[in-house]
Write a structure and sequence with these properties.
The chain is of the alpha/beta class. The protein has 3 domains: about 180 residues, Rossmann fold (3-Layer(aba) Sandwich); about 190 residues, Rossmann fold; about 100 residues, GMP Synthetase, Chain A, domain 3 (2-Layer Sandwich), CATH 3.30.300. Helix content is about 35%, strand content about 25%. The protein contains 14 helices and 18 strands. The strands form 3 sheets. A 9-stranded mixed β-sheet has the order 2-1-3-4-9-8-7-5-6, with helices on both faces. Helix 5 crosses helix 6 and helix 5 packs across helix 11. The longest helix has 23 residues. The two termini are about 40 Å apart. The structure holds xanthosine-5'-monophosphate.
Length: about 500
């Protein structure tokens, strides 16, 4: 399958470039900026994109690619900082711009062959740069300009090296997808053969070849990711798959019954049910640090799996529903993106746990997983559910996990879901839940003053969990949620609504 690779120089938009290329049905992967030319040659992409980034090319320590990449003969497109790298490498000059450009600008196209073919003469583009080209390198031609950038797009059409100062990947640039399509498909010649039908076909074939007659253990949580993995493996290897549902006591209300029944009745998948509530609770006692909680949960999951492997095994593989954003966010791309949170389902398994790991969805974004799930006839009850974090209520209970806080988070979250459903909003938002910590506030119950817990409601909009915005819920829905929680959940006196977007906040509070 033809591929485009994006080298990540630290821009907040790097992963968006990848998504946009995939939207044009070409497979695209994000790699660290310093991936060696030897590895790139092995991957043999059709073309390479240098992302933007916050650095300045003229500074000594700024990130630079392996310069041999330019000798490999692959078409290259540099975006923003990536564009400046190309200018700098080929002998042009970059300096701090006198007129810095942030926001929308009119891009006037000077050359409509290749990169701007089938694009209007003037389009709106999104600029975000403090440095600019002062002199363009020999062999390069100006393809487009703005009022402030005489060389907003340049190209050496013979060698297929292009640089653009604006960001085609953000929605504020008109025809951004078309420009990226022109680079990936027309200039680089990548065939648009990436779609979920072909993904499914190739993945099932790969799993069969890799797993052969081995036995695979698959933890299912009821989330769309693990359910899709289970359905995929069920189709690929049938009886050599053993699914297991671990109740760690940090689940949504009645989750264990719902999931095991749905899997059995609707997908024909038998599930081993493990009640490990006490075991997890015991280990989490006295622990309030979020990363420690995640680590303990990862370890405890592994312990449970070892027990199951002893009882139901032997197994050679463990299947997990890891997605592409998990891989990127866990810092596995080793690019300049720092580790934000350790997601327990990536790399959290101890070394002694010697099952090979199968992660068939690790190259997919969430919306792509939904499409795969549909193709596998995963019922709507799974498809339409909000994502739920593996460590469950442990990341929604702030501080130590206690039975009181668990009860409050569980009951209050159920109310949030019920009220969103009643208002027809559940399917419109990305995630919605109630969190609780140790803070308390005074309330009045009848004639009595009580000192109760403060519950935080978090409802957010997102497309892939990489960025998120808080949902502007109608006041009457917030009011109903608040009234019901203070009336129905014992020990709660105040309800608050979280209005921080991601970044700077994250979706989960812990
Ligand atoms: P954050 O809080 O990092 O969440 O903005 C991004 C998305 O990931 C989910 N999440 C997790 N999922 N293990 C998981 O499987 C985890 O440790 C974890 N932490 C957060 C979160 O619900 C959101 O969808």
């Amino acid at each position: 399958m033809d591929k485009i690779i994006v080298l990540d120089f630290g821009s907040q938009y790097s992963h968006l470039i990848c998504r946009r290329i995939r939207e044009g049905n070409v497979y695209c992967e994000l790699l660290p900026y310093n991936t060696t030319s030897r590895i790139i040659k092995e991957i043999d992409p059709k073309g390479i994109i240098f992302s933007g980034g916050p650095a300045s090319v003229y500074l000594k320590d700024s990130p630079k690619p392996d310069l041999d990449i330019f000798k490999l003969g692959y078409p290259i497109l540099g975006i923003c900082y990536g564009h400046q790298l190309i200018v700098d490498f080929f002998g042009g000059r970059i300096k701090r711009a006198t007129n810095r450009e942030y926001g929308r600008a009119d891009l006037i196209i000077d050359d409509k062959s290749n990169l701007f073919s089938r694009i209007e003469n003037t389009i709106k583009c999104w600029m975000s740069h403090g440095d600019a080209a002062e002199k363009i390198p020999k062999g390069f031609k100006i393809l487009a300009h703005t009022n402030n950038s005489f060389s907003a797009a340049i190209g050496n059409q013979k060698r297929k090296f292009y640089g653009i100062q604006f960001h085609p990947e953000v929605i504020h640039t008109d025809k951004g997808i078309e420009i990226l399509k022109n680079f990936s498909q027309t200039i680089s010649g990548a065939k648009p053969s990436w779609n979920m039908e072909s993904f499914l076909e190739i993945t099932i074939e790969n799993i069969r070849n890799e797993v052969r007659n081995d036995k695979v253990l698959c933890a299912v949580s009821g989330g769309i990711d693990s359910t899709t993995v289970a359905a995929l493996l069920h189709r690929a290897i049938d009886n050599n798959l053993q699914c297991v549902f671990v109740n760690h006591g940090l689940l949504r209300h009645d989750e264990e019954k719902l999931v095991t029944q749905l899997l059995k009745n609707r997908l024909g998948i038998e599930v081993v049910y493990v009640d490990a509530e006490k075991q997890f609770f015991q280990r989490l006692k006295g622990v309030s640090d979020p990363e420690k909680k995640r680590k303990i949960i990862g370890e405890e999951f592994a312990n449970v799996f070892v027990d199951i492997a002893k009882r139901n095994g032997p197994f050679q593989w463990l299947a997990q529903g890891t997605l592409y954003p998990d891989v990127i966010e866990s810092g596995f791309s080793k690019g300049p993106a720092a580790i934000i949170k350790t997601h327990h389902n990536v790399g959290g398994l101890p070394k002694w746990f010697n099952l090979k790991v199968l992660e068939p969805l690790s190259s997919l974004y969430k919306d792509e997983v939904r499409k795969v799930a549909k193709l596998l006839h995963v019922p709507d009850e799974f498809l339409n559910r909000h994502p739920y974090p593996g460590p469950g209520l442990a990341v929604r209970v702030i501080g130590e996990v206690t039975s009181i806080k668990l009860r409050i988070a569980k009951s209050a979250s159920k109310i949030v879901e019920e009220e969103l459903n009643a208002a027809g909003l559940y399917d419109k938002v990305w995630q919605a839940y109630a969190a609780v910590g140790d803070d308390r506030a005074v309330g009045v119950l009848g004639d009595e003053r009580v000192y109760g817990k403060i519950v935080i409601i978090r409802v957010i909009d997102s497309v892939d969990a990489m960025t998120a915005d808080w949902t502007r819920l109608p006041y009457d829905v917030i009011e109903k949620i608040s009234d019901r929680i203070t009336n129905e959940v014992e020990g709660v006196t105040w309800v608050t609504y979280a209005v921080s977007s991601k970044p700077p906040a994250t979706i989960e509070p812990q």
